[in-house]
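Narrative summary of target 7.
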Amino acid sequence: MPVTEYLERNAKLYTDEIALVELNPEEKDTRRVTWKEYDLIESSTFAPYRREITWGVFDEKANRFANMLLGRGIKKGDKVAIIMYNCLEWLPIYFGVLKTGAIAVPFNFRYDAEEILYCAELAEVDVIVFGFEFIGRIEANAARLSKGRLLIYVGDNCPRFAESYRELVADCSSQAPDITLSEDDDAAIYFSSGTTGFPKAILHKHLSLTQAAEMEQKHHSTSREDNFLCIPPLYHTGAKIHWMGSLVAGSKAVLLKGAKPETILSAVSNEGCTIVWLLVPWAQDILDGFESGLFKMEDYKLSQWRLMHIGAQPVPPSLIKRWKELFPNHQYDTNYGLSESIGPGCVHLGVENIHKVGAIGVPGYRWECKIIDENGEIVKQGEVGELCVKGPGVMTCYYNNPEATNEVLKDGWLLTGDMAMQDPDGFIYLVDRKKDVIVSGGENIYPVQIEDFLRRHNKIKDVAVIGLPDRRLGEKTAAIIELKDGMECTRPEIEEFCMELPRYKRPKEIIFEEIPRNATGKIEKPKLRKKYGADNLVAKEIEEEI
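Modeled conformation, tokenized:
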């Protein structure tokens, strides 16, 4: 069934129970309001510390947005982009899009103005819904973005080039639209990039979303008594899919703005959260805080916290050992996935398999896995090959890109591009990434983008960007720079030049050296990784575990 039916079920069964809470710890105004109360507030200066919404209002808001879109001519197969920070409006807007039969297209909130335009044209979006923080980026290309598209602004003081979300939905019906949906209907487009850094539009059916939601609930036994703390951005399949376990269970969830360790601990304590999904740096910060004495257990109510799970990057076994020493009663899971497999869970460790920490695990609910060689043949157990997955969550295609689709979809199998091996017990371990993407703090960083930027410097002849091991982030970005003959340059000079880049893309290490290239002109990054000790520390720990 379409995943929207779970929302409609919850609205009927648990009408007045809290579905979502939004926490804004940085806000000085500590008023706590419901969404209905917030709707009546006109001041754009008011941003409450805490907002909440019931299942009944959640569904009503989704219906109003759906009916508004339908009234503006949006129909099945049309595409609605969403670019907003996590907030109480995000999920009702997303489900409102799904209820029309249109395709929801979440945008990475780190996209700059040109990337927003590129993705809007790539996915052929008909509507763009955006928040206050993105006014400047939308306005930069407003003439092109508004051509044939509806621009909807979520917030107060609507800019002149857009229409107000609040005004558009005010008089729309709160009843479910009369649209028939099936699992075979297209539902969502997510974006992914390879080593070139150019996004590909990943198309999924409703079947993928329902599969992911049911799998998440099953993997972590999410019940009505659970309360999930959602910290990562909802534009990503990871955060949204983990939340969907709460959707299936009909249980509460908290959307937390901010990832400081004290903020996370306070949210768990004050809201009674039982399940928390962390990235490696956040878990590292929490451990460091307790071990240094910065935090004390007696200052928080954490006894109800039953499950901590991690995804988005390799997890050092030593981190989990430290975590279990601090939280001996916690269940632990790790999840592997990619946007092409509708996010995390096609492979997962399983809470019962903590003795296998270091592995990404076994095939997830309704998934199959195999490891193949360059000829497509299954390798022997213990040998390294490319991990392939097959299941109800595999993407339909890369939208309007049959060539790229055919490269990764083979007879229903998705080739992940990740190199892996399987131990005698059937557990899968990642060995290396086939692609050169750097995963730092759970975010993908594409070396080519940074290399192209650095080559604009008038003293730089050549550059290679690689990932170096980092205890907190997993990997940090390093730029190996070859200067033009006769030129001199310093690290501060390069750092100043890189201030134009977003902070997370700026190289953390700068090394001046000649760049090795092979006979065909390709940079020999394996040589650089070996020379600078960039063999992943996590991989070394895993090898020790095996």
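The CA atoms of residues 457 and 493 lie 10 Å apart.
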